[in-house]
Amino acid sequence: MIRRVVAALRSPATRDNANAAVERLIARGTSAVVGLVVAVFVSPSEAGVYATAFIALSLVQEVGENTMRQLGVGLWRMEGGGRIIRRASLGISLGGAVAMAAVLGVFFATSIASASQTVALLPFVPLAAVYGLSIPWITLAQYDGRWAAISRGQAVGSIASIVLCVPLAPTIGIAAGSLQTCITEGVLLLLLIKGAVRPEPDLPRRPLLRDFIAPTVQSNFLGWLQGQSERIVVVAFGGATTLGLYSIASQIARAVSDSVVLGLTNVLRSRLAAADTDSARRTVLRSIVSQGVVIALVLQITMVALDLFVLGRILSSQWTPALLAVPVMSVSAAPLACMWLLSSFLIVEGRARVLVPWHWLGVGLGVATGFTVAVDLLTGVVVGAARDVVALAVRLPYVAGDLGRRFVLRMILACSTGIVIGAIGFGSACSIHR
Fold it and tell me: Do 175 and 115 touch, CB atoms closer than 8 A?
C-alpha cells in the first residue's frame, strides 16, 4: 500500500487531491480549533447543548446539501441536470433555514436550551441557508477541477472567522462555534460565485429521481442515522453533559482525519465522473483509498500525541473523561476513511441500494453504542469503534472485486495498525490524565 501511495504522489492528480483534502481540513480543522477554545470557557453541559443543535443541522445538511454534492458533478453533464441542481439549491436553502429555526424554537419551548443559549445558536439558521445556496457553485468548481480555488476560499473564510470568533469566545461562549462556521461557509460561497462557468451538457437525460436522487437521499439519511443514532440516545438517556464530553472527544480524535477524507471523497466523485472505463474507475478508487488510509493513520498518531501531551494542560479536569476516550475513539479513523470512500464509490456507480440493509444494521449498533455511552463513556467508545469496523466489513464484499484481494488485505492490515495505535495511546492516557 505504501508503494501505491508513493506512485500516486508522483501523478498529476496529486495537486487536486491535496487541494480537496486541504479544503475539508481547513473547514473541519478550524471548527475543531474554535471548539477547543470554546471548551476552555464553557462546561460540558453547555457544549452538549451545542452538540444537540448540531445533530439537527447535520441532518439538514446530509439529506440536502450532501446529496446534491454527491450527484452534482455528474448532473452538470446531463441534459436538464443544471436546472435540477438550481431548483434543489433553492429548496434546500429555504427548507433548511425554516427547519433550523423550528428546531431552535422547540429547544427553547422545551427548556433544552435557555434563552441565551438559543440566541447563541441562531447562526445555525443562516448557515443552513448558505449550505443550500452553495450547491451549484461548489459542484461547478468540483466539475471544473478548481480545487485550489475551493481551498483558497476555505482558507480566507476560516481566517476571517478565527479572527472574529476566537477573541469573542470568552464572552459569547458556544455562539463562537456556530458563528465561525457561518462566516467560513458564507465567505467561501461569495468567492466561488466569481469564477463559475456553467458547462454544456454532453450526456443524455436519465431518470435521475429514481436512479440517483431518491436512493442517495435514502442512503444519506440512513448514513446520518447510523452516525448520529448514538448521540440521539446519549441526549435522551445520558444528558447534555455526557454528550458534551463525547462530542469533544470525537472532535479531538477524528475531526481532522474525517475532514481530509471528506475532501478525498469529493475528488473521488470528480475523478470517477471523468473516468471512461471500469478499469480506470477501479484505478482511481484504489489510489484514493490508499491515500485516505495512510493519511488517517498519520493523523491518528498526531491527534493521540496532542491529547497526551498538550490538551491535558489546557482543558480543566472536568474534561478528563473525554481526554481518556480520545485514543480509543481514534481507532475508527482508518476504518471510517475506507468506509466513506467505498460508500461514495458505490453511490457514484449507481449501487447505493446495496447499502440500505447495512445502514439499518449500523443504526442498531449506533443505538447500542448510545446506551452504552450513557452508562459509561469509555465502554461506549469501545463499542462505537467496533461498530465502525463492522460497518467497513459489511461493505467489502460489494467492492472486493473492484479493489482486488491483495489490496483488501493491505487495507485490513492498515486498520489493524490503527487498533494497536489506539491501545498504546489509551494505556499512556491512563497514566498521564489520571
Answer: no
- 399 touches 342 (CB < 8 A): yes
Q: Which three cell numbers stand for residue 149?
A: 480555488
Buried/exposed code over 234-243 (b: 16+ C-beta within 10 A; e: otherwise): bbeebebbbb
Q: How far apart are CA 136 and CA 87, in angstroms?
A: 10
Is the pLDDT score of 197 beyond 70? no
CA distance 261 to 239: 30
Q: Give the residue from 286, 19, 59, 341 showing the smallest Cα distance to 155.
A: 19
d(CA 9, CA 263): 16
Instruction: Provide the angle, in degrees to the nearest 10, between the axes of the packed helices 135-144 and 147-165.
Output: 140
Closest CA to 69 of 255, 205, 270, 211: 270
Could you write out the DSSP letters of every residue in 136-189? Answer: HHHHHHHHHT-HHHHHHHHHHHHHHHHHHHTTTHHHHTTHHHHHHHHHHHHHHH
Angstrom distance (rounded) from CA 82 to CA 85: 5
Q: How far is CA 403 from CA 7, 14, 352, 378, 391, in A?
A: 17, 20, 17, 34, 17
Location of C-alpha cell 425554516 = 98
Q: Which long-range contacts (CB under 8 A, 24 or more apart) does 298-301 make?
A: 299/256, 299/257, 299/260, 299/333, 300/253, 300/257, 300/330, 300/331, 300/333, 300/334, 300/418, 300/421, 300/422, 301/421
Domain layout of the chain by residue ranges: 2-433
* Nearest Cα to Cα of residue 241 among 12, 10, 42: 42
Query: Do residues 339 and 262 make contact, with C-beta atoms less than 8 angstroms apart?
Result: no
**pTM of the complete model:** 0.81
pLDDT digits (tens, 9 = 90+) for 229-285: 889 999 999 999 999 999 999 989 988 888 888 878 878 877 887 777 888 889 999
**For residues 341 and 261, is the Cβ–Cβ distance under 8 A?**
yes
- Looking at residue 312, its amino acid is G
Angle between helices 2-9 and 14-41 (to 10 degrees): 110
Q: Which residue is it, cell 462556521?
A: 181
Q: Strand locations in 353-415, DSSP E? A: none
In sequence order, the 6+-apart residues with CB closer than 8 A to the CB of 424 are 327
